[in-house]
Amino acid sequence: MSASSFARGAEIKQVSFECDVTPSKRCDLNTFVQYARVCALLVVQKGHLLLEYFNRDDGFCPERGAINEPTRRYGIASVTKAITSTLIGHAIATRYGARTRDDFRRILKMPVGRFVERMDVPPPSAYANVPLQDVLRMRSGVRWNELGWHGLFSDANQFSLDVRNLKMNVRDFARRYRARNEDGDESFNYSALDAAVVALVAERMVAPSSLTDFLAKGIWSAIGAQGDASWGVDADGTAIGPCCFKAEAGDLARFGVFVLNKGRVGRSQIVPEAWFEIATRTNTVDDDSIDPENRYQNIACPLEYRYFWWRRRGHSDFAAIGRDGQFVHVYPDSATVVVQISDWRAWINGSARECLTFRAHDALVRAAVKAHEVPHTASTSPN
User: Fold this and answer.
1) For the residues of 243-299, what is the DSSP string, one character each?
2) Each residue of 140-197: pLDDT tens digit?
3) What is the distance between the alpha carbons of residues 71 and 52, in angstroms, rounded to a whole number?
4) Direct distance between the N- and C-terminal alpha carbons of the chain, in angstroms, rounded to an integer
5) 0.90 cut: is pTM over it?
6) Distance separating alpha carbons of residues 216 and 239, to the nearest angstrom
7) Please, are residues 309 and 85 in contact by the beta-carbon 8 Å criterion?
8) 14 Cβ neighbours under 8 A, 6+ residues apart
9) Cis peptide before 123, with omega less than 30 degrees from 0?
10) For residues 375 and 336, what is the distance between their CA atoms, to the nearest angstrom?
């Protein structure tokens, strides 16, 4: 089955929004899906599928033997981090019985070394004494260079060589890393290793089960996923927290709806609501802003970052975002989820496309709100 197993809602017909890629400074969906190289686009509001679009252009999201269709499993890059975030919440609830925000915060204040053995063996990893909550906010203070010099000599590349190629496990790889300075630098630093360490902690919490089995038998089963997902692992079989997850677009939408509903499926509360109040909502306890000078800030549409979710400053929506233009975008105020799979070729012109995508998604949500009361079959075209 595919995304079409969602209940059908009102058709989104016309969408127009401000953009700077046309002479008229207005974009419709046809213009957007071509400019943003969109391979798949779904809009689900209040559990109803309002738009289902798959680009049949073979040049978008090319993969041998695969075409853009509902049953295709897409690699989602850093969108995986949001799945890792949700799993650590589920793991804390399962292992420690956490139900309230105070319950979760008590565990989140504990250092990584409390959960993962041998992190403090000399020379100790910088992660040994870092609170789990700081790692989830990518403010671990651990020295890490995600991008390197023009994509070369980066820590992320070394992670791919050693961990993704099954030469090392995440724990031993993380033990190499030291703090950025002795005073403790808590500024935001985007880090695949932070997400990998969170997945490792979650794996230890759910032992003897593996994190992949914990996901499959827990959240993935609960949301009624229609297709099998796959997840890359390290040398020990631990899921790689920052990436390497593949799933159908419709199942990503189901995951987004699960987060939108704060961990509830029907009458069952799979993950406590308190977790999502901590992980996805604006929080007065922490400063989740990103400095304008930070290389990961998008100046044209300023962002904040919390528990592996991106938030737009001054907005209530939040999104998981991957490097090729993958999005699971959640709008709590209108009960809407937008899933987009794109082909940005490793973020080429990504900052501009990201801002345009936010405007397109906002326009889709406005159209969905207007169309929701009109019974119709969902559109299979961006027109």
Assistant:
1) S-EEEEHHHHHHHHHHHHTTTEETTEESS-HHHHHHHTS--SSS--B--TTSTT--T
2) 999 999 997 666 789 999 999 999 999 999 999 999 999 987 666 779 999 999 999 9
3) 12
4) 24
5) yes
6) 12
7) yes
8) 28, 367
9) yes
10) 17
